[in-house]
Amino acid sequence: MITISITPKFNVAEIYLDSVKIPFVELEAELTDLADNMLSYLQTYINSHSKGEHTGNLAKSMKIEYSSQKGGESPSMGWGIGHMLYLDVFAPYWHIINYGGSGFKGDYHFVPGFFEGGKFKYNPMMAEGKSLPSGVKGIIKPMNYIEESRAELDRQIQRIITSLKG
Amino acid sequence: MSKYRVSRNLEASFIEFLETTLLETPYSWNDLNVIKGFNRAYELPTPTIAVRAENTVYDKVEVGSNSFTRVVQIFIDVFGSDFGNALDLKDCIIEILKDGLIYNEYEITKSVRTATATPTPNGRIRIQKISDSAINFNTDKEKLDQHDKFRWLITLSVSIGRVE
After folding, report:
1. Among A81, B41, B102, B113, which one has the highest count of C-beta atoms within 10 angstroms of its own C-beta?
2. Domain for residue B164, yes or no?
3. pLDDT level of residue B64 (50, 70, 90 thresholds)
4. Least CB-CB distance to B54: which of A95, A107, A144?
5. The pTM is what?
6. Which residue of B has its CA nearest to A143?
7. Which bin fits B64, alpha (ψ -120 to 50), beta or left (φ > 0)?
């Protein structure tokens, strides 16, 4: 008689190391550096492709957000640049600058929040808020900073993986 | 007589290929405009496809060499006449582009009022990456220009695999 027992016992970090052959700690360090480099790349790209006089507000509104889980059997790290809810408030024209289009004449952009001490406080959970002018008119040529940054990100990740694999 | 350089050859090859293929069987799109650039799409009725060659990356062929291969980003803006139209159009475009297309080199002959571009096939355009995304402005559709109501953006990374 043959008895088979299956014990689901494994270590994700070991499986990752076996398959990808890159130590997670080194990869994590490289990807953390990449976040800063990508932010700088994106801001430079936006500023250098902005036409005429501009406030630099869109580039300044780009921030990095991290999401990491250190240690344990399944360590992870992640980051993103440009939180849409934040951009909707501080650079509400981010969408039309990226994709281009015909300006919304006389249109206003609703921002949820409240006033406190003479300053407007953003709160996405509130139904009340204020309306801000979209501030764009005429046909806006697309800058496609999102697509360009995504292509640059792919190139940089490929470079990192190639260099770590030796 | 003048000649287009690589970026304009790429744009023109895409426009010619899309125009020909989408109007033919089995796609048979009617009243479709395929143009170069972006702004002019707002002067034409929908559906319109606008093709642009934008950022280019030059990779060195080998260390110490002055030779490069280029990868060009091609943006295809789809301005649909309704949501289903835009969705179908972008799927058709991806379906016909995924296998690549012929790279034409164009020679321009100018007369007093007209300019004629004559294509000569010289290689193949390879599609390295495709992505598409719906463009939804966070605003009431009624306030949007007709062209911005049902839009899609297709982004391609392409190469002609040539050492320059």
Report:
1. B41
2. no
3. confident
4. A144
5. 0.80
6. B54
7. left
Minimum-distance CB partner of A155 among B57, B139, B155 = B57
A96 — phi, psi (to 5°)? Answer: -70, -30
Residues in chain A: 166
- Number of cross-chain residue pairs from A and B with Cβ atoms under 8 Å apart: 62
Distance from CA of A35 to the nearest CA of B (A): 21
Across the interface, do A109 and B139 touch by the CB < 8 Å criterion?
A: yes
CATH number of the domain residue B28 falls in: 3.30.2000.10
Domain that holds residue B153: 2-159
Closest CA relative to residue B92, chosen from B17, B164, B3? B17
DSSP B55: E
Quote the number of domains for chain B.
1
B113/B17: higher pLDDT: B17
Closest in B54, B143, B157 to A104, CB measured: B143
Taking chain A (166 residues) in consecutive chunks of 10 residues, what is each chunk's mean pLDDT? 63 67 81 93 93 82 82 73 88 90 65 65 67 62 93 90 80
Contact A151 B157 (CB under 8 A): yes
